[in-house]
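note to self: dont lose this again. the chain is below, predicted strucutre after it. 331 aa total, dont forget to put it in the shared folder this time
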Amino acid sequence: MKPVALLIALLSAAQPAQKPGSRERIVLLVDEIKAIRNFPVVVAERLGYLEGVTVMNIRDDAPTAEMLMDGRVDAVMAYYHHNIVNRAAGREFQAVVTLGVTPGVKVLVANHARDKYKTLRDLKGSRIIAGGAGSAKTTVANALVLAGGHTLADYTRIANESKDKIAAALKSGEADLVVAPTPDGTYYEAQGAGSVFADLTTSEGTRKTLGSLFPSSTVYMTSERVKAHPETAQRLADGFVRTLRFLHSHSPEEILAVIPFEISGPDRAAYLKVLKEELPMFGGDGRMPAGAAEQEWRVLTEFKPDYKRVKVAETYTNEFIDVAIGGRDVH
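---
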């Protein structure tokens, strides 16, 4: 054997054998996989669009941000505002896919208050049932009040409890409005507790009410990992672009056929009804819509001025979605 050939053979023998086309495993942590807001990741996984990606459900014993920072997971699927909140705390997170372009909620006004609260301008003095101080539901409530030309001090936020207690509060007059994720809004209507004040499930309704789209479900990573492993971000972008195209080109019934019973539960008809309500939330193409992140950031800064130091442009990137849409075969 010639010296050069012998050297190549020895070097090859010293390297661990790799399967042709093998890829490093990616761990994607999902903020409760059974929640209807996360059905796209179920579809993506079932259709094989997330090749080499291990989908992991959220854990109670370890904070999501901590798992992302220390590398136990590569990416997280959760709402966009986490990127702003964590950057303000010194954690550089960045959304690489924007799945939800609306809040995916309906705002209901209690039947006793329908004559008093008809438009956003009427919300001064209102009592709105939302979530915790920094939750997505509270962010929506804040956005509504601000869009009406008021300050956050002009309304009272009531922490949410069980659906039955919320319905009771609306009926008794203890609360005026509620921010209701799918399918809770339908439940409150059926209970005779309230009617729709603003529909923020669709792009049209969100733009009409808030003035722009409002990002919700995203897939985000640490900025450091995005830079060090752009192939990870690209694979996630490729997979979710394919998923969004599937959602846009198939009927709710066809989408339901992909979702297993352990996710939908035994009542497939009820799940289908909820699925139809939730689908408009995912009306985008994976990019962060123009002006949407800035709009949500402005709302968050009114709640907590510390967020003003966050540079919005660093909280997301469309780079990988642009490649997935225009430069790769993702059909």
